[in-house]
C-alpha cells in the first residue's frame, strides 16, 4: 500500500481495516494523521514524545470506538478528523491539568529549599525533607540529586539512566510526587 493510499480508501474500507487490525491500514492512518498532531502539540508547549503519547491515546480511543461499532463516519475524512480532534482535546486537557502546572513549577523546587536554608525559615522542614528524601528508592534519590543538586539537564539525567528525555521527565515527576506524599503528615 503506497504511503498516500489512505486517501484512496473509503471510510468503510478504513474502518474495516481497523476492525481487522490491518497493519497496513493502521500504519497508513498513523502516517497520515500523526504529523498534524505533532505539529499542533509542538506549537502548543509540547514536545515530540508528548505528541507520540497523546496520539497513541487518541488512536486507542478511535480503535475502541471502531471495535465497539460506535464510530459512524460522517464524511470521507471522518476518521482522520476524529483522530486529530481527540488528540487535540487530550492535549488541551493535559495543558489544563494540575500535572502540567506541576511540571512547570517543579524546577523551582531546589531554589525554594535553598532559600529556606539561607533564611533559616524552616529548619524543621529541611530536616523533614532530608528524612523523606532518604525514604525514597535509590533511583529516585539519584534522579532528584542529579537534577536538583547537580543541576544536570533532563537530557543528561536521561543519558545517565539510559532513558529517553520524556521518561526522565515522567520519572522525575513521579519521584517528586512520592516525596511530597512522604512529606505530608
From TrEMBL:
<dbReference type="InterPro" id="IPR014284">
    <property type="entry name" value="RNA_pol_sigma-70_dom"/>
</dbReference>
<protein>
    <recommendedName>
        <fullName>RNA polymerase sigma-70 region 2 domain-containing protein</fullName>
    </recommendedName>
</protein>
<dbReference type="InterPro" id="IPR013325">
    <property type="entry name" value="RNA_pol_sigma_r2"/>
</dbReference>
<dbReference type="InterPro" id="IPR013324">
    <property type="entry name" value="RNA_pol_sigma_r3/r4-like"/>
</dbReference>
<dbReference type="InterPro" id="IPR007627">
    <property type="entry name" value="RNA_pol_sigma70_r2"/>
</dbReference>
<dbReference type="InterPro" id="IPR039425">
    <property type="entry name" value="RNA_pol_sigma-70-like"/>
</dbReference>
<keyword id="KW-0731">Sigma factor</keyword>
<feature type="domain" description="RNA polymerase sigma-70 region 2">
    <location>
        <begin position="34"/>
        <end position="98"/>
    </location>
</feature>
<dbReference type="InterPro" id="IPR036388">
    <property type="entry name" value="WH-like_DNA-bd_sf"/>
</dbReference>
<comment type="similarity">
    <text>Belongs to the sigma-70 factor family. ECF subfamily.</text>
</comment>
<keyword id="KW-0804">Transcription</keyword>
<keyword id="KW-0805">Transcription regulation</keyword>
<dbReference type="Pfam" id="PF04542">
    <property type="entry name" value="Sigma70_r2"/>
</dbReference>
